Amino acid sequence: MALADYLQPHERVAAECGHVAATNLRLIHHVARSGAPLFRELPYSMVQSIRLAQRPRNTTVALGAVIAVLSLLAGVGSPLQIGAAGMGAAAVLLGIVFGDLTLVITTDTGGEKPTRWPLREVGRRESQELVAVARAAMSGEYDFVAEPVAAPPAPSVVARSVLLLPADDAALTLAALSGDADVLCLDLTTLVHASRRAEARELVASAVAAARRAERRVWVRVSLDEAEADVAACAWPGLEAVVARVESAEDVSRLDSALNEVEAERGLPERVRIVVQVDSAAGVWALRETLGASPRVSGVIVAAHDALDLLGRPDARATWGTLRPPVLPEPAHVRGRIGATAAEAGVPVYASLATGNAPGGIVDALRYDAVQRLAEAAVVARAHGYHGAVTLHAEAIAACNAAFPGTPAAVAPAAAPAPLALQPVVPSHFGIGVVRAAEAPVASAADASADGADDEPVSPSVTSTSAPSAAPPTAPVVWQPVVPSHFGIRVPPREPGADGVGVEEASAAEAPTADAPSVDAPSVEES
Amino acid sequence: MPPVRRSMLFTPANVARFVEGVWRHSADVVVLDLEDSVAPEEKASARAGVREAIALVQRGGAEAALRVNHDAVEADCDAGVWPGLSAIVLPKAETAEQVIGLDAVLSRLEAARGMAAGGVEIMPMVESAVGVQNAHAIASASARVRAFGVLGEADLSADLGTSFSDLHEMDVLGYARGEVGLAARALGKTVNGRAWTPGRSTIADYGDAAALERSMRASWEAGCRSTFCVHPSQVAAANRGLRPTEADVVLCAEAVRTYTEAWREGRPYGVRQGVIIDGRIARAALGTIAYSLDCAAKDAAKLIRRREIELAQAVADAVADASSAEGATSC
């Protein structure tokens, strides 16, 4: 059994998108269970990357060289000598091309050299298994190098920043229309007092129309309990998606049929999409079914700040009080699970960048650094594979736009960064990358003398053959075992000006918007 | 609101001294153990004593539970399912069928022995990779499973090949813990078990009081309501740590007030110190307040029982003294 068989298909896909926590932990447990001594002895919290490299077979090479040299020294002439020299040369070649496979393990213990595990020492069965997998990968039979991700997210529905605002506040909506958020999300649910819901439904139709005139993308968050009424209120030309908190496939079906009805009645030009909001353990568990329940589903919002049952303390936000709420509050295992499932379905995942703060509360003296924290959170979310973020805070929009890679519409197509999905990650072996001797001369030639040579990134030639042609030639995908949190979470190469910019540059990104009418943080007093 | 079961103390069912004295440790639940604490040749004699032990361990106000052997469930239940028993702890739970089988056994015994149907809970312990993979199925197999999430850390480590001794330093069971906890939450069960914290605070290691304290706090913060214990120091730490603090209760009360005031004024949520308090949070805060009251009530009940027992003991001693003195004078 190949090690890859331990992984579920969606986990295999997910690891390519950087959602590795759950995948790797699960794999390690399974492999450990299979009794492979190799993995059992690894202090795996220290491991940064594991990959296979080929080393020349020293004895074969040396023997071949000696035969060739001796036969040449003996003088040229007889066919026997030529034959012997040829055989010697052939042995040298064979020794190099069919070299021994070695596992090269890089740990984060600082300046130490990477550990090498000659595969013949790990036991016959495991080594055969690994070698078979590696050989298959080298010959291209095996699909774990850059397996294409199922249906990449449709570009039109990826959003770097989604500004959430109550639908019953017309002034706020008007102000937001001139802001920088990729998407405005008008809320008909928790941000609207029950007594104003009818009014909000009336306002939302004109807001959708206004957004359309202003060429702004607009989503509406609807309540599942009153799905039909909410959908009827907002599904007008210009609406890109409805957002709803769902916990099961039935929830999605309900929205789907409500949308079907309204679309048929009004003859809408484009199909309204569904973005699901996950904020409960049940929602996380059922995500695979909910994402498959309708072709309209085109995104997942992880509203972890609201996921009280995931956060442990049911009253989490009530007792945050003077505490700092976590940057990305969802547990790593849950993040991995959601990322895996969404990647399998090919839909983008949005973090929810709320410090728990109310709009307006962000400039509270206790939280003077909240904007900076939101910016950091956006960068962290990006590193964890999120495609964008939803936030209540207009102040965080610039940071989101800077941190996330963005839509093709927002950046020139030629400069579009290679999506995370195209990383030559090897999910099934928690980061075993295969260095092909023929294509990585640095690794194979210098191998015998310099241990550090194997730390070279996989040569771009490997990745450019495996990455789709859409990947820009100027941005070769390279291995970057960055990772504070170990286990091959890789940050893709950053193209200054094309890819996202760092936190430091966030302020620069804000500058052009300074003269535009800035969207005031909605305050509770206003609403 | 789940019953208050912060500490569940294992007691070997075959050691009379322990069974008689365990009430003094103030555990919320005493788990009579027929499994790992009992040698194979003593299982039969241990079973014989369970019925009496159930009453003995409850004297201090604790509930009684019974840990059965996963390969002798029927015999163990037959010996131990008597009025007064609250729960069966099912170790090495791996499949839904195991739980369904136990459910049937319990239903039969409850009917035969005049106990309320469905009254005995099942508490599965996940101790193997198979159990982790089937977590959702195990937890949803029976309505008797009302709390879930306990890992048998030592056995699970052995099964997974992870190092139990390194659990002090790194959370080698992170995936299993996450999966089991997620299943429990997804099904709306009470979450039991322990969050991971660095330091000597595993079930087998209770020497470091500070680490134990930290572990219990972290577990409460992570939503765990209950943990198994093997030592009185763990019981004390769990009873103190697995409950809302007074500060929590104050904050929750303020949150509830903030929300109700906002709602009355027509705002969809209130704001306190810059933090949104909406209806969900306010309801959860109310739940926390109620749970803290339950914990206080449980502690008070245990204290009253303890005083009663001590008083009865003092009276008995005095009577004994008096009668012996009387005997001495009459001689």
Please describe what this structure looks like:
- The complex is a heterodimer of chains A (527) and B (331).
- Chain A is an alpha/beta fold and 527 residues long.
- Chain A is 38% helix and 13% strand.
- Chain A has 20 helices and twelve strands.
- Chain A folds into two domains: 3-56 and 99-149 and 421-466, no CATH class; 155-418 and 501-513, Phosphoenolpyruvate-binding domains (TIM Barrel).
- The longest helix of chain A has 19 residues, at 79-97.
- Chain A has helices at 9-16, 21-34, 37-40, 58-73, 79-97, 124-138, 170-177, 197-213, 227-234, 249-266, 281-285, 287-292, 308-311, 316-320, 332-345, 370-383, 397-403, 441-445, 460-466, 503-510, and strands at 47-55, 100-107, 115-118, 161-166, 183-187, 217-221, 239-245, 273-278, 297-302, 349-352, 388-391, 432-434.
- Chain A is elongated, with a radius of gyration of 27 Å.
- In chain A, β5 (183-187), α8 (197-213) and β6 form a beta-alpha-beta unit.
- Chain A has an eight-stranded parallel beta barrel with strand order 4-5-6-7-8-9-10-11, surrounded by six helices. In chain A, strands 3-2-1-12 form a four-stranded mixed sheet, with helices on one face.
- With 331 residues, chain B is of the alpha/beta class.
- Chain B folds into two domains: 7-243, Alpha-Beta Barrel (TIM Barrel); 244-317.
- Helices cover 52% and strands 13% of the residues of chain B.
- A seven-stranded parallel sheet of chain B has the order 7-5-4-3-2-1-9.
- In chain B, β2, α2 (43-57) and β3 form a beta-alpha-beta unit.
- In chain B, α3 (73-80) packs parallel to α4 and α9 (209-221) packs across α10.
- The N and C termini of chain B lie far apart (62 Å).
- Chains A and B meet through α2, α11, α13, α14 and α15 of A and α8, α11, β11 and α12 of B.
